[in-house]
Amino acid sequence: MSEPVAGTSPRWQRLPLGPLRVPRFRIFFTGQVASDIGTSLSTVAFAFGILDLQGSAADLGWVMAARVAPLLIVTLIGGVWIDRLPRERVLVGTQIASAISQAVTAVLLLTGTAQIWQLMGLSFVAGAATSLWVPASGAVMPTLVPGRLLNEANALSRLASNTIMILGAGLGGLLASVIDPGWVVLADALTFVVSAFFLARLPATRAHIVEGATSFWRQLRDGWKEFAAQDWLWPVVIQFAFVNIAWTGAYTLIGPLFAREQLGGAAPWGAILAANAVGTVLGGVVALRYKPVRPMVVGVLCVTALAGPLLAIALGGSVWVIGACSLVAGFFMEIFEVQYAVSMQSHVPQDKMARVSAYDGLVSFGVLPLGYALAGPLVVLLGTGSAAGAAGLLIVVVSLLTLLAPGVRRLRAVPQEEARAAQDDKDQTDPVSAS
Predict the structure, then answer these.
(1) Which helix (H) or strand (E) holds 40?
(2) Which pLDDT score is estimated for 7?
(3) CA-to-CA distance for 118 and 120, rounded, in angstroms?
(4) What is the reported pTM?
């Protein structure tokens, strides 16, 4: 698909902001920004709202585990149905579900009637919506812009999210320290409503799988075969199964505990999260133009930077030290994220994109409940610092081992116009799939 898109000009197409001139991408981008504003505010507030209920580290871990548990249940089924349904409508549904779950959570926190089991149930609903949003948004991206703008579109989407995190994380931590965290969660619910309004304006494309053309299980097997055939993809997914256990358990659970015990509470931790977001913004600016020849070699090496803030916590670092390490981690992780997304969208066929993304999510994120569940007991067993340090070392070792995979070292960047043109040709001859 190399022809110009209506509404774009050659001058804009040469600039990093070119995707914003494409109507479909602009509508998606607006809805995403609305949702991200609320999420960035509530991330810190929700954690401290649970702790304000006199919840323990284990209670916080169980609530967080409930949020990611749907990855084990919803992801694969969702991957098939996302390929069956208009992906744009799936995105709207996820935002409506998230709005409802966050609104009820806010009411429970504000009235002081919240129980841990209730928050776990609501977190499960929110997690189920996220389990559908991730593969749906990744699969829809190549349909929003022409191939030559795919790198810039992914970078801009992530750059906006991370820029919002700079303001939202710091402001969310500040708000949680001066007002009831429930009000911040309620604001998050309202932003999901705004997001759904904009995403509903996105014209729907026809399903990639003709319903009834093949059985559900056949479609699931086809997705697995494609996933397994990508010899660069599955080693990176396995890498992230271990990285996510270490990072989410240590950074999102042990981090707030360390901040409350050693740094002064929610406001300092919000500043650290904001520093991480600053790093991702800087990385996103670089990623707008940075297109390495071997994207996954560069990406896998970038992942090792996640160990920095965890090792800083282990050594009892100050807010400034942990914040600086978080900034560096954010910078290099953003380089990885953009290269990974573009590699997926360039090398995986569009008609199988959601199912392959679902297997990715199942393996790399399906282990998150284990990370959250283990973090609390490990803090009790090893102490806050030692638990964070062990997580950091695990990230480094696993990432270096991933470079031994031949597929990771061989993968080269594909010119995006060539990749999309090849996919367009396939779609014209394949009666089951369509993009």
Answers:
(1) helix 23-52
(2) 40
(3) 5
(4) 0.71
Three-state SS sequence of 186-242: HHHHHHHHHHHHHHCCCCCCCCCCCCCCCCHHHHHHHHHHHHHHCCCHHHHHHHHHH
Of the candidates 184, 96, 186, which has an alpha carbon nearest to the alpha carbon of residue 132? 96
Backbone angles phi, psi at 213, to 5 degrees: -65, -40
Q: Using alpha carbons only, give the angle 326, 165, 332 rounded to the nearest 5 degrees.
A: 40
Give the list of residues 6+ apart from residue 302 with CB closer than 8 angstroms, or none: 332, 333, 335, 336
Query: For residues 165-191, b (16+ Cβ closer than 10 Å) or e, as one string?
Result: bbebbbbbbbbbbeebbbbbbbbbbbb
Rounded Cα distance between 63 and 46, Å, is: 10
How crowded is residue 386: how many other Cβ atoms within 10 Å of its Cβ?
13
CA-wise closest residue to 177 among 107, 106, 53, 265: 265
Written as one letter, the residue type at 283 is: G
**Helix (H/G/I), strand (E/B), else coil: 291:** coil
The C-alpha atoms of residue 111 and residue 412 are separated, in whole angstroms, by: 55
Which residues, at least 6 apart from 366, have a Cβ–Cβ distance to it below 8 Å? 68, 71, 72, 75, 241
Residues 6+ apart with CB under 8 A from 107: 182, 186
Architecture of domain 17-201+216-414: Up-down Bundle (1.20)
Model pLDDT for residues 295-307, shown as the tens digit of each residue:
899 999 999 999 9
* Low-confidence stretches of the chain (pLDDT beneath 70): 1-17, 54-58, 71, 169, 205-214, 414-435
